[in-house]
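User: I'm writing a tutorial on reading structure tokens. Could you give me a worked example: one chain, its sequence, then its tokens, then a sentence or two explaining what the tokens reveal?
Assistant: Sure. Here is the example chain.
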Amino acid sequence: MWEDRRVYIPRRRAPGHNHSATMTPMWINLLCLACAVGLPHLVQGGPPFFGNLKEFPPGKPTGANIGNICRKTRPIVNYSAKNLPQSGFTHLSRQGDAINSVETGYSRCCSQSDKLSCAVKVWENAMDNFCMEEFTTMTRQYHCCKKTGEQRKTCFSNDAPNSNYNS
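And here are its predicted structure tokens:
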């Protein structure tokens, strides 16, 4: 059964009004569930405010996956204000911008003769730009951004949920 432990959530009140809203753990879990149900197609890792976009980070282009990256029938998601929450989720917007940047660059690279080296440069630039943006905010940065050089690239590559680009 639920333990009757109260969590106090302070609210901004008029001066002289000192009541606080309280929520039991059951209500907090229901609230988190409602958030997760609202955007399941966008996030992985729990409720949206804790998770990442399900395509983030994008996989690093390799000789093994460049064919899938350039496959004309591969579904590509474009993130914008229309399909991302507008307040309190700026980390998702930064992730969406990185994915959009990668996909735009990949479409250019796939028409070139040296697709792979072009796609790798696009991916590296997008991940570096993502990290630069992460460090301009007061929120917790994506853990790979705290690394540098090859360690950062390896970290992003290892975290990629679809490194083969096969879905």
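What the tokens reveal: Residues 20 and 43 are 31 Å apart (CA to CA). DSSP finds five helices and four strands in the chain.
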